[in-house]
Amino acid sequence: MSAPLLKVCCAQLNGTNSCWLLLRTQGIRWCQGGSERTFFRGRGRLNTASLGLQARVRPLPLLIATGGGYVGYDQYGRYKDRELEKQGIELSPRIANEAQVALYKTIPTRLLSRAWGRLNQVDLPTWLRKPIYNLYIWTFGVNMKEAAVEDLHHYRNLGEFFRRKLKPQARPVCDSHCVISPADGKILHFGRVKNCEVEQVKGVTYSLETFLGPQTFAETIALNRNEDDPSSFQDLLVTKEGNALFHCVVYLAPGDYHCFHSPTDWRVAHRRHFPGSLMSVNPGVARWIKELFCHNERVVLSGEWAHGFFSLTAVGATNVGSIRIYFDKELRTNLPRYSKGSFNDFSYVSNNNQEGISMRKGEHLGEFNLGSTIVLLFEAPKDFTFNLKAGQKIRYGEPLGTM
To answer: What per-residue confidence (pLDDT) applies to 32?
Structure first.
């Protein structure tokens, strides 16, 4: 019984003895020793002054209310933007400021991703596999008819299910085009690289030099580089007269096939691993955070193809426990500790293998544990044309463009 209710009850009774009798029947003693009243029920003790203070200060509801209000305000703004876009009005993208990016980075996504990766390796009981996999299939629209093994009981854990192989005829590799899609996914952006800036989605760019890192393998050319010219770094990658630098971004959703393949016939000479954050790379976040791909952990494979420079970058994301390159047994990603801004180089060109790693178009190259992003950057003749549309779905083996 609360203090106000006790006062009302006592006021309705005549005499102190009646009030004391009521309190005794409730198992409560009322001590009136000043302005502060203390109530005893059994061994518990409750101070009305401290109760009022605690009732006024509630951090969790305050945090929830503040966060909910901000999310509601942000969603309302996005709703207004969508309505304006439907009317044909082009708007500049909403870009997160430094404080918002820093706040996002405080979320322990690397720890959560490692935990998720370990959970994926836990074998499930046979009776539990089908319900869990069916839930995942229904949620993300997975087409199991394309899988080499359609029986869900065959996959002992989530990791094996994510890395499922496809039937050979499910993804025919196009022979008439020189560059194919390395994975199933959605085309976020594509085109020619200009002024050393690459678009991750329309209107949101990142620095080519920050993304790839310093081109130490071209030291002799770098001596002639003009530091005041931002396009000079881009010029280092274009090795042949009449060529230009192109890019293509493929986003792999959680329901997509998680392996990726060689997009062309080329020679892989160098690997650069950037430890970093593991923020989400879905299109909504890519539109919100500038240089998202430069913040995240990534593995850059670079080398040469028939027309000059060629690179494939596998970008990590939330819940991607690791990035695996099949021919590179030394690569270790998503480690507990790393130095911010650091990177590790490894050369595939050695005394025993002067040519590096030769990859054939369509050959298995690597895999993600869940969904992520692949960025292609390559040199090609200026008449190279992409046969794509931004936002379209594409499957591994389908052509990207023609010359």
So the answer is: 47
Question: pLDDT per residue over 213-224, tens digit each?
Answer: 887 544 433 334
The per-residue pLDDT for 21 is 41
Say which residues have a Cβ less than 8 Å from residue 206's Cβ, sequence separation at least 6. Answer: 197, 198, 200, 290, 291, 292, 293, 294
Q: Which residues contact 301 (CB under 8 A, 6 or more apart)?
A: 268, 270, 271, 311, 312, 313, 314, 325
Three-state DSSP at 315 gives: strand
Question: What residue type is 208 in one-letter code?
Answer: L
The whole-number pLDDT of residue 64 equals 67
What residues act catalytically?
Answer: 184, 261, 372
List pLDDT tens digits, range 55-91: 555 666 665 666 566 556 555 665 666 666 567 665 5
Count the neighbouring beta carbons within 10 Å of the beta carbon of residue 32. Answer: 9
Give alpha helix (H) positions in 1-108. Answer: 3-12, 16-25, 48-56, 59-86, 98-105
Q: CA–CA distance from 268 to each of 239, 251, 262 (Å)?
A: 16, 22, 10
Whats the size of the chain, residue-wise?
A: 403
Strand 28-32 to 266-274 pairing: unpaired
Cα–Cα distance list, 310 to 247, 261, 364 (Å):
10, 14, 17
Tell me, rounded to whole angstroms, the distance of Cα 67 from its chain centroid. 22
Alpha helix segments (H runs only) across 121-237: 126-140, 158-162, 208-212, 219-222, 231-237
What is the predicted pLDDT for the residue at 93? 62
**Which residue type does 32 have?**
Q
Are 189 and 202 a contacting pair, CB within 8 Å? yes
What pLDDT does residue 6 have? Answer: 43
More confident position, 83 or 48: 83
